[in-house]
Amino acid sequence: MSKLNQQVLKLLSKHEFISGQKMAEALSISRTAVWKAVQNLKEDGYTVKSVASKGYKLIGASNELNETLLTSMIKDSKLFSEVIYRDTVDSTQKIAFQKITDIKKPFIVVAGEQTGGRGRFNREWTSPEKSGLYMSAVFKPDIYLNEIIKFNLFLSLAIANAIEETFDLDAGIKWPNDIYIDGKKVCGFLTEVVSENNVIQNIICGIGINLYETEEITALETATSIENEMKKNGRMNSDTESFLTRLIHELEQQYHQFMNTPFSSIKEEWMAKSIIFGKEMRISEMNRTFLAKPVDITDEGFLLAVDRYGETHKIISADIEF
């Protein structure tokens, strides 16, 4: 969305009512250009009321993902420099990889729909139009490769916190990269890196969050959406703008902690949100599958699990299932 639309949105946000003439004078444009910008905002899902002799009033923020909304989310960001929005993409990860050389600072890619969304182990991630948040956040840390395990722990906490703070829903973390609500998956993320000589230059983290209920999500017994969980609690409104604001804030905060503090600084909070400890899980590594109960997590981010024979296993990378 154009810079003009963002400027008009900013003026609307600051006033109870503001006339088209005042906006035109403030922005040094014509009243026709103001009117067109207002129409664009309406198309993006904003509710704008027009009253004769008073002007325009912003009634409601957009619950639809759009470039105007996303750009406003990061305009004061201390971390992310840019947001790229596309209505439809194959995968936000692909766009992010294409841009990492051109864009020198951390940035975000968001899409309204993915036709080829994927999760860990190249599993398909269903990404229907206007039903979820499909994004890739690119970080540029210059850290050693073995630090990526801890990065996932900080990132999972950021997403869980954003869901809880915005929607007042209990979000649980399933190691290493899933978020659950009431026993069902609402979010997954995929972490990929670009590295050289054992040093990571870029972390490309693809995040998929089910915001709204769809036939595809309903058909999956193990999945849920924010909308569905809100309805179960007798609430109907899911505030996308507030959620995006909180999510970006949490990503920035947890990334800062990741870069400056050890995992022990958040371990207690992370453990409190985990949903795996004390339960027997099916753990699938590269060459074996076994049953064990997760009992702890090390400061390096490795999962410790005890099998039926009392043997403790250190899990570095695996798929775990209830």
UniProtKB/TrEMBL annotation:
Kinase listed as a keyword: no
Indicate the residues that the entry says bind DNA: 20-39
Q: Which organism is it from?
A: Lacicoccus alkaliphilus DSM 16010
Keyword list, A-Z: ATP-binding, Biotin, DNA-binding, Ligase, Nucleotide-binding, Repressor, Transcription, Transcription regulation
Residues in the signal sequence: none
- Listed name of the protein: Bifunctional ligase/repressor BirA
What InterPro entries has UniProt attached to this entry?
aa-tRNA-synth_II/BPL/LPL, Bifunct_BirA, Biotin_CoA_COase_ligase, BPL_LPL_catalytic, HTH_11, WH-like_DNA-bd_sf, WH_DNA-bd_sf
User: Which family does the entry's similarity section mention?
Assistant: Belongs to the biotin--protein ligase family.
The record, for HAMAP family, names: Bifunct_BirA
Q: Which residues form the BPL/LPL catalytic domain?
A: 72-259
A molecular function (GO) term: ATP binding
In UniProt terms, what function does this protein have? Acts both as a biotin--[acetyl-CoA-carboxylase] ligase and a repressor.
What this protein catalyses is: biotin + L-lysyl-[protein] + ATP = N(6)-biotinyl-L-lysyl-[protein] + AMP + diphosphate + H(+)
Q: What is the lineage of its organism?
A: Bacteria, Bacillati, Bacillota, Bacilli, Bacillales
The residues listed in the UniProt record as binding biotin, with positions renumbered to this chain, are: Q114, R118, G119, R120, K185
EC numbers listed for it are: 6.3.4.15
PANTHER family hit by this protein: BIOTIN PROTEIN LIGASE, BIOTIN--PROTEIN LIGASE
Tell me which Pfam families the record gives. Answer: BPL_LplA_LipB, HTH_11
On the tree of life, the source organism's domain of life is: Bacteria
Cellular compartments per GO CC: cytoplasm
Gene3D superfamilies noted in UniProt: 2.30.30.100, Bira Bifunctional Protein, Domain 2, Winged helix-like DNA-binding domain superfamily/Winged helix DNA-binding domain
Quick one: a GO biological-process term for this protein? regulation of DNA-templated transcription
